[in-house]
Backbone:
């Protein structure tokens, strides 16, 4: 293992220390327990958005804390969900009297820990609602699995709901908008290489030079199938076709198209993927109203990419365009 | 042996912590095959924290002791194992409130409560390739082994280990392993293995 770290035990804490030093105008950090809150929290009279998950997906979620997006982010250890005390303590700090909305990616651990935190916050008299993301079409949604994983759609949801909270939208309406976004977005990802969890010290799986994994999640886990390496255009088709046919997206739909890097893929390659993804979307008769290209929800140093399409209406687009001022996403300010 | 006292319970938790530390790599390797490879590290971190807590303050009874174990696991393990093992020990605590010791019947009752809590939180059934597959047959074996704690826990440990091994051919239906579908077949479940370690250390503690 070759990593720019001091020791595996200190990875999360030292990264948080760096974030706090780098972004004093956006956020504050607690170390006992770990959480990041926006600098001006609590914002009186507005719904507070709390998210979180295992570390190793940076900039998600801590990089999205700030005006117009998350009120708090709770980082767990690398690829391990945070614990209920983190969301409980962070929730109390950011609660501005209008309730808390938890944004939870659908993983067994995340769901259980956020459920416990919600129970604890409700006992304190704070209103809590939860929206989930489960947009990964690579996982079959059936009674016999834990359900689909939450992946790229989480970023788009955090941006849109963050803008809604900033505008003063009440909790029940934000929850309803979140549920609508959940039903309107789909994603799929692939990996060229595995990644190495610092405390594991070795790659989570092995891929030969001429192989790739299609249908991966964001935790360095193997995907649905291993296939021979292919040119970018073919790989993009393998991702886009299942995404577009799953919802399904219909001719004439307006979408936000998001091409995401898994951490180890350069932007130059992501634009090659976006070029083909946009062509496929247009071939399906979709109108791309906005796009996002870059590494926003990653798996450490894994090379690879994911695509996310979200069907939007005018309200969602207005909220997407609204000002946001966070370490990783900033416009209109 | 017919009574499992507070000092025995402390010895059990310490033995479990030592066993989890020793088996950390194996548990993480099992997890890497069908999950994300951190089960060993998470369990070790949790139990190291628990042992620190138990060393810092004596518990008045079994209820208080297991409550400390549960709360500490809940806030240190993370993942799905945190709420599942944390909730398991909290339930042992609830069912042992005010008790200075367990007899065989009280032990079975408390552990059955723990199993019910795991199933409620994790929504897992027998055969889903989870810790339930090790715990459920172990408790049947324990309940059928009579009032001697050494014999009862020995039977439970053997049943748990056997059942953990037999999770290999199962198709995972819960947690991250379920994303793999058919590819989860052929690997033992890491949670069933950590559960077997817990019951094996319970047995060695009762024999000592």
Residues:
């Amino acid at each position: 293992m070759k990593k720019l770290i001091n020791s595996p035990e200190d990875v999360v804490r030292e990264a948080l220390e760096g974030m706090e030093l780098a972004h004093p105008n956006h956020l504050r950090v607690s170390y006992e327990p770990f959480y990041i809150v926006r600098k001006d929290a609590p914002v009186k009279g507005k719904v507070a958005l709390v998210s979180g998950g295992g570390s190793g997906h940076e900039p998600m979620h801590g990089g999205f804390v700030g005006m117009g997006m998350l009120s708090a982010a709770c980082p767990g250890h690398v690829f391990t969900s945070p614990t209920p005390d983190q969301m409980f303590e962070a929730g109390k700090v950011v609660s501005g009297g209008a309730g808390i909305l938890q944004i939870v990616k659908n993983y067994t651990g995340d769901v259980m820990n956020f459920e416990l935190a919600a129970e604890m916050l409700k006992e304190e008299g704070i209103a809590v609602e939860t929206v989930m993301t489960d947009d990964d079409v690579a996982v079959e949604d059936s009674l016999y699995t834990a359900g689909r994983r939450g992946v790229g759609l989480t970023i788009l949801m955090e941006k849109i709901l963050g803008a809604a909270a900033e505008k003063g939208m009440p909790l029940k309406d934000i929850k309803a908008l979140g549920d609508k976004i959940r039903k309107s977005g789909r994603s799929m990802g692939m990996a060229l290489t595995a990644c190495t969890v610092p405390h594991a010290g070795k790659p989570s799986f092995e891929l030969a030079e001429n192989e790739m994994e299609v249908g991966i999640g964001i935790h360095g886990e193997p995907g649905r199938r291993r296939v021979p390496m292919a040119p970018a255009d073919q790989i993009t088709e393998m991702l886009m076709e299942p995404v577009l046919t799953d919802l399904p997206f219909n001719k004439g739909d307006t979408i936000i198209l998001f091409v995401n890097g898994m951490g180890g893929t350069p932007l130059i390659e992501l634009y090659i993927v976006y070029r083909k993804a946009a062509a496929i979307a247009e071939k399906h008769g979709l109108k791309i109203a906005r796009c996002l290209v870059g590494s926003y929800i990653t798996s450490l140093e894994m090379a690879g990419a994911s695509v996310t399409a979200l069907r939007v209406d005018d309200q969602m687009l207005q909220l997407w365009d609204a000002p946001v001022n966070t370490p990783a996403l900033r416009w209109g300010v | 042996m017919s009574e499992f006292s507070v000092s025995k319970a402390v010895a059990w938790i310490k033995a479990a912590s030592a066993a989890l530390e020793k088996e950390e790599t194996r548990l993480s390797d099992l997890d890497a095959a069908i999950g994300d490879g951190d089960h060993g590290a998470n369990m070790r971190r949790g139990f190291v924290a628990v042992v620190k807590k138990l060393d810092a303050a004596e518990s008045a009874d079994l209820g208080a002791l297991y409550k400390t174990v549960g709360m500490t696991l809940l806030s240190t393990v993370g993942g799905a194992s945190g709420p599942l093992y944390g909730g398991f020990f909290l339930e042992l605590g609830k069912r042992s409130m005010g008790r200075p010791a367990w007899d065989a019947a009280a032990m079975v009752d408390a552990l059955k409560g723990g199993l019910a809590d795991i199933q409620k939180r994790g929504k897992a059934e027998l055969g889903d390739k989870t810790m339930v597959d090790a715990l459920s047959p172990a408790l049947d074996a324990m309940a059928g082994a009579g009032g001697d704690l050494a014999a009862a826990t020995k039977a439970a440990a053997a049943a748990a280990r056997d059942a953990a091994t037999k999770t290999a051919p199962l198709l995972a239906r819960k947690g991250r392993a379920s994303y793999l579908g058919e590819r989860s077949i052929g690997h033992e479940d890491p949670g069933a293995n950590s559960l077997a370690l817990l019951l094996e250390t319970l047995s060695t503690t009762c024999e000592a």
Observations:
- The mean pLDDT of chain A is 95.
- Chain A has two domains: 8-184, 185-319.
- The radius of gyration of chain A is 19 Å.
